[in-house]
Amino acid sequence: MLDFIQQLVSGVALGCVYGLIALGVVLIYKTTEVVNFAQGDLMMLGGFFAYTFIGILGLNYWLGFALAVAAMALVGMLVERLLVRPILGFPQFAIVMATIGLGFFLRSIAGMIWGTDDLKIDTPFSNGVVKFGDLVLADDKLSVIVATLILCLVLYLFFNKTRLGTAMRGTSENMLAAYYMGIPVKRVVSLVWAISAMVAACAGVLLAPITFIHSNVGLALGLASFPAAVLGGFGSIPGAVVGGIIIGVLQTLAGFYMAEGWKSVFPYIILLGVLLLKPEGLFGALGRKKV
Amino acid sequence: MRFVFKTNYDQDIRLFQHAGQMWTYLALFAVLLVAPAVVSSYMLSQLVFVFIYALVGVSLMILVGFTGQASLGHAAFLAIGAYTAAFMQAHGYTFATYFLLAGVLTGIVGLLVGFPALRLHGIYLLIATISFSFIIEELLARWESVTNGNEGMRVKTLELFGMEIGRNSDYFYYLCLGVLTVTIIVTLNIMRSPTGRAFIAVRDSETAARSMGVDIAATKVRAFGLSAAITGFAGALFAHKMTFLSPEMFTLQLSIEFIMVIIIGGSLGLHGAILGAIFIIMIDPLLTLLKDDVPLLIGSLAQAFGAGSERVKALEDGTQALTSTAGLKGVIYGLIIMLFILFEPFGLYGRWLKIKLFFQMFPLYKKSTFKRQKVYVKSERNR
Q1: What is the ipTM for the molecules in this complex?
Q2: How far apart are CA B6 and CA B102, in angstroms?
Q3: Full pLDDT tens readout for chain A, 291 residues
């Protein structure tokens, strides 16, 4: 039983990371219908920025965290301006391939700049544990869970209570109509990319003590976040996080209780199952047009 | 400017629109026939890879370019073809048998993937094919009795008509050339038959295709099966070319390379698949060449602009360090994908068509002939 709870908590922590990446994917998809395959690599880049600020420049953890997030916001806006805006409106496959190309590019550039060794940063959560009786939970995993909850709350308040958030929701409903209503659609889309990159950066920094910072870390996590997004209904923000947690927990349990090899494919088996049986996902509002 | 005046439909679907075209292709074929006598053995080996990639490119062109279905799982199809061939060869079957069976079996798997794909559109299909490819990759690593797992599998030398054909021999080159030529001719014929026209109709508008009586489900499944079968044939050749198979050869990276073939080549026609394959394969020798020559070139340029010898040396070393970094290939791949999609969405073949049209129409060429329409209101969510 104790083992089970341990696995459950680390599963939820892993799931929160999936959820945060899926959240970024869903945010961008909702507003621009662009599916960003480079989201995991943006997360990786966030981790490297944090390493630069904290590990190399020796700044305070929280200051370094904030700077990494701010830097990633700029990167997100830059990507939107240079790569996404010119091809918006082209067939979706072309846009997806462009983001895959971006992922390639970021991964190799990060490998060239920071090398291919495993890097690590010291965080306040690095080696601490919290004990509940016999149950021992690592601080770094708990920090991911708590931070995900806080981020979700902040994003919820932002989207539902602020003017800008409302503008973003309007843009995601119908870009053209939003434009006619006087919403600066280009700026809104740019900000959505910034927010999404910031969420990715948070995931990257939080993940740093759990896995090492490495240029290839984004690919696997980024791809595994797609099952999360699909399970949650691709287009639903709470769905992304819930889907991420479900995938993370099931994957961790599969790794613990089932034969070797199941762990890495489990998210994809779930994904295929969801696509075949319930393509609209758990929280999906997928409208179906009758032809 | 040549103007082909068409008076009936048969004339419109002819393989060669005019005699000049036929002679051009025959000349190209003749050049390819004498190539082994002329080019170095390294280039010959690269050409074989070009043929194999072009086969996969043709199969992707059918699925992605003509039918409009996305796939990032073709590395898995290639793996199925390659492992089938290797397994059957190890059990004593002849080349003709296992070559055909590799294609047929992969085609059947393709059909099976095609059925669930009927319910999926665009991005969902893409993610589903990626998942399929991951599952196959894991299966190859775990199904040790057949695939020998992560240790990999040796492929014996190809035997045909009682003759051993080595992976670098001229005969293997001719074999690949023959398979590619036959595949291209078959594909061209399919594309001018009702099946092929249904593919294109499904790509352009499913609604319109259905209202014209095209069975969308059957068409999509057929496209998947056909595409997978061609990739399976390519897989059998790939197995003999590599002589060693292991699961980590068939990763997502390879699928992305295959898609790059048609992005770089352009999805307007089969020419794109060939041009893209040439580009992807020849980029490696080109990079090696750059690695050696660019530092010296930069050095001599700096010298020409009057830099001191220490400065020149520093520049040369700097460029040397940059070009020999391990990640350079990834950076270049990423840049190529992004730049092609941004600036030349029709690929190399599209560029060739533009240049040709420019000269044919000379003073009257309009850029907008090839302008792509941007659609902002069509929502993938509501289809």
Answers
A1: 0.84
A2: 41
A3: 777 888 888 888 888 888 889 988 888 888 887 888 999 999 999 989 988 888 888 888 888 889 999 999 999 999 999 998 888 878 778 888 899 999 989 988 888 888 777 777 777 776 777 777 777 777 788 888 888 889 888 988 988 889 988 888 888 877 888 889 898 888 998 999 999 999 999 988 888 877 778 888 888 888 888 888 888 877 778 888 888 899 888 888 888 887 777 778 888 888 888 887 877 777 765 544 333
Nearest to A275 among B64, B124, B141 (CB): B124
Contacts of A243 in chain B (CB under 8 A): none
Q: C-alpha angle B253/B257/B260, rounded to 5°? A: 135
- Chain A interface mutation, best of B119, B127, B214, highest count of A Cβ atoms under 10 Å: B127
Nearest to B126 by CA among A242, A174, A268: A268
β-bridge partners, B245: B153
**Best of B66, B134, B257, B267 to mutate (most A CBs within 10 Å, chain A):** B134
Distance CA B115, CA B69 (A): 13
Tally of CB atoms within 10 A around B372: 12
Element (H, E) at A15: helix A2-32
Domains of chain B, first to last: 40-283 (1.10.3470), 285-367 (no CATH)
For chain B, state the CA radius of gyration: 23
